[in-house]
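Re: folding output
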Amino acid sequence: MTAPHRALRRRKPSVAAGWRDRGLARAGTLLPGLLPSLLLASCAVGPDFTAPASPAVDGYTREQRVAATESAPVAGGNAQGFASGADISGYWWTLFRSKQLSAFVEEAVRNHPDVQAAQLALLNARETALAQQGSLFPQVTANGSAEREQASTTQQGDWPGQTSNYALYGASVSVSYTLDVWGGTRRQVESLQAQADYQAFKLEATYLALTANVITAAITDASLRDQITATEEIIKAESDQLVRIQRQFDVGANSKSDVLSQEATLAQAKATLAPLQKQLAQERNQLMAYLGRLPSQDRGEHVRLADLRLPGRLPVSLPSTLVRQRPDIRQAEATLHQATATVGVGIANLLPQLTLSGSYGASGPERLFSPTTIVWSAASSVSQKIFDGGTLYHTKEADVATFEQDLALYKSTVVTAFQNVADSLRAIQYDAATLKAQAASEKATADSLAMAIEQFKIGAVPYVTVTNAQQSYLNARVSRIKAQATRFTDTAALFQALGGGWWNRTDETPDARPRANPGYFAGLDKKNQEAMR
């Protein structure tokens, strides 16, 4: 924990009292003598934010290095190795070598409302921060007036009365400037800038979640299609087998029980088809939603598992860099930064507030620069809360509690992030072994089914042996397809857990950039806008 963070802990009052009471001591004893210098070089009370340090660990698992995976003799079954410290591509989904998959991701990012909402939320936060920055400058107001009046001498007793018309003009410029002696306004700006940082990383988190969801949905869609194809092939084979068994029964070569057994096996296979079709239909609807389409706008494009390529070399970020790459950790850090700045605002509110004001005017625009006709004023004021029932003090204490809460939540986010990476690494390892075993199981059950059919033909085994072998083969084939798809989704999950490489691409659109200021201070405002990006 960094020094500013330690200073915020109530459990260490000897340290915390330093910054909590620093401003109050100045107000009581130092203000008269130090006011001129404070006006020239004011400070910002409260703790300065420092990002928490990365966890002091060397890896994500108990082993220093994660071993390469096993391979299987099927598509997507190649071995995968891990490159510790390698950078992550901003377009990591292209490693699957599927044009259709990349097209899905591009369409989702372009069309999904959540991405546009995140862009506009970032714009809102940046504009709000820029608006607060205006409080650091003097507020200048120009006033002008024109009045036409008519006067009559009858009001003075003259008769007959005479009337006269005349015009009254006024012009003035007033200036008001609240001195940010204690840095309260600057802390407010800092807090809003931290909120803008939060929204920037929320945009990255939205982008990352959407791309990962699109890829997972497309792979699941491909897996379900292969499962349906496999099931339909099994149903056709078992239907043909039922025809043969029925013919053999008709000529007295088989018993009725053999026919009934085959009918039951065929019915069981057909019963597995409808749930797969239902799951595929719902998965398509989900994929369309990710793409920003309505379900009725499904044009049927899909990815095939056989067309995907499994990356053989997977980058794994160093643990020391993960906290800078995960958008959710950066969001938690921005929230912590905002809470730190808010503590400074609460302390500044406890201290005297100084304001300078002045005006310069004349009875007409043409007289503004005439020394004999101008009217001017200058004033200064100091205000200090004497009694407020403890409102400001307890507000500041609540801000301190919020900081401590956000610090705990930040630590929780870091722990979850490291768990995500470790889970993904383990999944890639063990699911590779699972695919190898499922591929072997599929081959073994296919051989067993072929043998059972041949043995049944010569009367060596009862037909129930054939039906059991058929069911085993169907289950093994579907399980292999699921395991095959899981290896692709595991790879996508690892890239997501490592942050998705957002630092290697630009996700912000013009919708997230502050609007140009057409006013007199457009140049200054432009510099502020650049600093917000």
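--- second protein (sequence, then structure) ---
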Amino acid sequence: MTASDATDRAVWRGLAAACVTLGLMAGSVAGAEGASDPAGETLYNGIRLPKPWPPKDRAVSYDPMTLPYLASPPDVIPIDVGRQLFVDDFLVEQRTLERTHYEAPYYPENPVVKPDRPWEIKPGRQDCPTAMVFSDGVWYDPADRLFKMWYMGRYVVTTCYATSKDGIHWDKPSLDVVKGTNIVDEGVRDSSTVWLDLFEKDAAKRYKMFYYPLKSQYDIFFSADGIHWGKPVGSTGPTGDRATVFYNPFRSLWVYSIRDYAPGKIGRCRRYWECKDPVAGSKWAKGEPGFWVGADRLDPRRPDLKDVKPELYNLDCVAYESLIIGLFSIWYGQPKDRAKPNELYIGYSRDGYHWDRPMRRPLIGVSERYGDWNWANIQSAGGCCLIVGDKLYFYVSGRAGVKGSASSGVCSTGLATMRRDGFASMDAGQKGGTLTTRKLSFKGKHLFVNADAHQGELRVEVLDADGKVVEPFTRDNCEPIKADRTLIPVKWKGAADLSAVAGKPVRLRFSLKMGRLYAFWVSPDASGASHGHVAAGGPGFTGATDTVGAAGTPSP
């Protein structure tokens, strides 16, 4: 379903107002979450982090997180990193456009990876043949020009490896780790995260695996090829079984999303730990990582489990363009007659810590029809999503379940997709509307948009810091956009580019009629390269950021 939800908007407008009030209150209290400290680190987007960071005394609460960067955004927002998405009002000063949030529909031929090998069946558990990502990882390797997947290949035993040329059809190669199989690790396991580290300078550490061997810590492995892992190079401090890891490239550090349990308060939840070195920095003591995030009172309850408060089962994260996105696996409870009906929700962070979760419908949900591959327990993949042309690919695991029992049944991996940048759009109908940004700054000179205006039109004008239109970047001089593409240049008569206003604080005013606006960005070159982060990568990209622009997007 891809329709706007008036209830979501009403709830979140009220919450946003409350967050502003709370944020302002927090700024007046010494040591409060979100308090301003001039000595704090300034991020790529102008957000200044307070000290100490991360917050040390965040209370365990079933309330949504306050969002200090929305309550008090920077006076001028730099936009040199990545496409700028309209998932919140961080970039917005005024608007009459309406926001719509979107779900990611399933690929119709799911599942794309099924348990079809003898070693994917655990002796004594023939009811649970398994080929599923349980985080693990799905990445596009630009060196080999291949999609690569690591997955649980036997229920809570073994990690297997698969490859694909198109992200749809997957091969399970015969490897030499366990001869004649695609197994890359035979160990007993629960959750695991595999990370293709394209920032790593040591080729022997290009792949990193954080692996829970059914004891209260994670073992850490390095690999040059993602197949041969050798012995652990270290282990973490204490953690629960469904912990995960991600790299925050905006601050060049690793973040451990540590599974914990707060009985009597919010149940399953996350603690936060950041470090520059994923091995040397992971030696936390019990209770040392601070409370981070959990489910909250805005998470819906299932009708068949209405007396159960939802809990946060898992959180996988990745850098996408100018944001951190998070896939929140929400646990609704354990029915008596089916496996856990966990579903995935989307969250967004502009500082890597605080989470905005404006859509309280599943991004990717379970099927309510018994017999479907995804009748139960949807879980995300490490890396979260890939950019494939003008689409995002989300790989998830689903469990077919066994009716009348909590058994997982057949465990497979499926695919959901959505438009590139398509988490949210700003929309106008026949009457039309406008959106004016806050003051922005940029070093580039070519403006691009991701928009669908094929039934109407989109125009853009540039305003100075005082709100006056800057010649020749007027609405009338703007060549009207009447297209539906994920990368469209914006041009004005009388100007070759935006170099005349580069480095100056300006606002952009978008005028839209009969269309949807998903993102905008200013590129240093005419290719439209955003220099933002590309999540788990995709065909056409040469590294962890978009340096190719149109070369990574198919022609219309």
